[in-house]
Amino acid sequence: MLKIIVLILWIDGILSSNGNGEKCDHLFYKWISKSAKNSIPVCSRKSSLYGNVDLRESIKPSVFRDLTKKEIEGLLDYLYNRSDLNLTTADKKATNSNYIFISEVFLPPKKHVLKHLDTGYAQPQREARVMIFRGAISIPDVIEIIVSPLPNPTGYRHVPYRPKSIPFIDRPINVFDYNLRPMLEKIDKVAGKMLNELYGGRLVNCGDRCLTFSLNSQLTTPVSGVSKRLWFSWLYQFTEHFLLRPVDFAVLREVDNNGNVTITKIWFDGSFFDSLEDIVAYYNTYKEYINKVPFPTRTGKNDKSINSRGEPSFNKPLKDPSQVSPDGIRYNINDRHVSYSYWEFDVGMAVFYGPRLNDIRYKGDRIAYEISLQELANFYSGDKPQEHVLFFLDSMFKIGAYAKYLHPGVDCPNDATFISSSFKIDRKDEPLINERAFCIFEFNTGMPLRRHNGYFWNLHRFYEGVANVVLIVRTIPTIGIYDYIIDFIFYKNGVIEVKITPTGIVTSSWHRHDNPYSFQVDKNLMSPIHQHLFNFKMDLDIKGTSNRFETIDIEPVVVDNICHKNPGATIVQDRFIKRLKHKELEAAFKFNFDFPKLLTFVNNNKKDKFGNSPGYKLLNKGMTKVVRPPNDGNNPAISWSQYQLAVTKYKDSEPYSSSVYTHSDNPVFTFQEFIDDNENIVDKDLVAWVTMGVFHVVHKEDLPVTHTPGLSQSTFLTPFNYFDESPGMSAGNAVRIDAVDVNGKTKTVEIERFGTKSDVNCIPEKTYYDELLKKNPCLAVQCL
Ligand SMILES: *[C@@H]1O[C@H](CO)[C@@H](O)[C@H](O)[C@H]1NC(C)=O
Ligand SMILES: *[C@@H]1O[C@H](CO)[C@@H](O)[C@H](O)[C@H]1NC(C)=O
Ligand SMILES: *[C@@H]1O[C@H](CO)[C@@H](O)[C@H](O)[C@H]1NC(C)=O
Ligand SMILES: [Cu+2]
């Protein structure tokens, strides 16, 4: 198989006649004549059953679909016509105007959706959720409304279960929190000369030697104790790799309700000052003792830029292997509905929270109503005050809006299908369509899905195996410096894997002296220890919505050992006991190595002939423990992270685990409240909230960019007494080889391939990705 792939890559290289093809021509023709073919066909399979990909928005979007372009346009028309909303357009918006912050699809109550999907009721109306900042009213606030029906709305109402009005000071992070220009001018005016002498750059009119506040982290109300919008802004020498060029200067600034910025405190040379004037006076006194850091130049050998460098691993450029799909694409996509082998589901992207799959079915049976990302969090610790409080909840930056630019051949295989997301955000009054928000592809993992070699002499000599080919839905939000590769992986045997892998640039800060929060990783450079935390919602529906959560507890038990020569001898065994969790607080799971258990969701109303109930097992292979106290600092904002798994009763009022208001006095809701009401969860519609994560102690090899191996975290959902045997037995494409004996001697074998042949006799379609990108640069880079 590998040989064939390599050969195909050669051919591809030659056909593309990129200049160095000639040398190989000879080889190529030799191979062609050997294979007795004049031309090798492009891999494809003409069929109405497979490979039908139609990504156009349907005239009748499904119940789960993100807002279509048409719907967003209709929505905006409607909203801008409502004089009572007095909305200012995106290009004219100001803190003291009313403007649309975000808008996305509002999913109907689950029971209405199920009625529609399962009993043929009419589809509920399409509706949009709209968050509006009202800076122009006498007491400014934030409102969240539902506008319907799309695409031609006639009215709106408040989002249910949420306050009708949220104090303006609590508004989510927005562009006016970063309006730094006036502050830069002020700092440059007072301290520009000093900063130039120290760090070789200015803050304004700086040409290619700019100093900039590129890291802005919120000092939240729970941490500061004051109800203000406070930010630490850290100064960096601005180069392409600016994140790795911090200097020992930061400001604490306040953004008021008019959007004005005032500097509250300034960090410089290891301590806080009250004013810029104080700093300049200090500098003039202690000049010769203060560290000077020359502005980095691109010619520097060790500049920490993200450019391939060094001695390559092959001394001649050689193409990487890549996969061939001999029968072309084998999945179907209709608008945002994906079907593949036994699987089908809908794909969507929430503005704040990111990827969401709905109505996930295997062999026609719904396994999950929803599996979605809820939060990407980062909690830092360090030796400076601004590091003590450094944390990010990426939902506040709109994870969904930053999932884009997937690159074929690296981020996804060349033959992947790219899917767009669509919503409206504050930046523009038109639909934000991120073309390459998702990719979908089949993937040969290079592992067997199963294999066995039977070798018991004349009774039983055979080989049987099937390759593990999966379908992957991938998205990669880049939130500032970090990229998160998020995969939903569908296996042929009914298993779903949800996997997340961080990569990207680490947060860097000024290294003053040895400290227990970071190694020194370069000159003047440290990168504080942090914990990545990821939360997913898994709304499982096992044979319906009446489910229970049972742990399978593994415990030692002492039994008689009658095999021993001594009468009365004992031996200790492992046994399991099913323990039903009755209430939400009981079901908030904290892993304990002393009490091993499996976590299962079962439908007790259904029994097989042995009395087993069908279930799915949830295996969190990305567990991490939060060792900071739950009520300290910003930890209440991530109360979900206290549990590797929490199970709650489904409620329309609890759609997300993470609130975009947690930086304030008034978080609107906390996850802890979902479980503190301690409802009965026996034979109810259950939702699993799964936390994965990893501590990141940054080391030199995380520079200039963190590589992925070893960082993946996964949770698996596995059928558990759901089927009578592995449903993977029907995956197809198995190989069975049986020995054939003649006169008591094995002469040959019988090979059964169940309809497919082993040889690949086609080449992948030629891709013109580079040409395509040159014409459509916005597919790959942020466009101006
Ligand atoms: C909005 O107002 C304009 C001008 O008054 C009108 O032409 C248009 O039909 C209105 N659109 C909607 C959606 O009400
Ligand atoms: C509408 O908003 C603008 C500012 O965007 C404000 O000047 C004006 O007074 C507001 N009108 C009403 C009726 O509130
Ligand atoms: C603060 O903002 C208001 C409204 O935008 C503006 O009129 C005022 O001049 C600003 N004040 C300062 C000190 O910049
Ligand atoms: Cu990290």
Describe the protein.
There is one protein chain. Among the domains are: 69-171, Roll (Nuclear Transport Factor 2, Chain: A), CATH 3.10.450; 191-196 and 203-289, Nuclear Transport Factor 2, Chain: A, CATH 3.10.450.40; 330-403 and 476-722, Beta-galactosidase, Chain A, domain 5 (Distorted Sandwich). The protein is 13% helix and 36% strand. It is built from ten helices and 36 strands. The strands form four sheets. The chain has an 18-stranded antiparallel β-sheet that branches. A hairpin with a 2-residue loop joins strand 25 and strand 26 (525-526). Helix 5 packs parallel to helix 7. The chain binds 2-acetamido-2-deoxy-beta-D-glucopyranose (NAG) (3 copies) and copper (II) ion (CU). One 2-acetamido-2-deoxy-beta-D-glucopyranose is lined by residues 96, 258, 260. Keywords: Copper, Metal-binding, Oxidoreductase, Signal, TPQ. The active site is at 394 (proton acceptor), 482 (schiff-base intermediate with substrate). It is an enzyme of class 1 (oxidoreductase).
List the ions, cofactors and other small molecules found in this model.
2-acetamido-2-deoxy-beta-D-glucopyranose, copper (II) ion
| Known CATH architecture of the domain at 330-403 and 476-722 | Distorted Sandwich
- In CATH, the topology of the domain at 330-403 and 476-722 is named Beta-galactosidase, Chain A, domain 5
Task: Please give the alpha-carbon distance between the first and last residues.
Answer: 45 Å
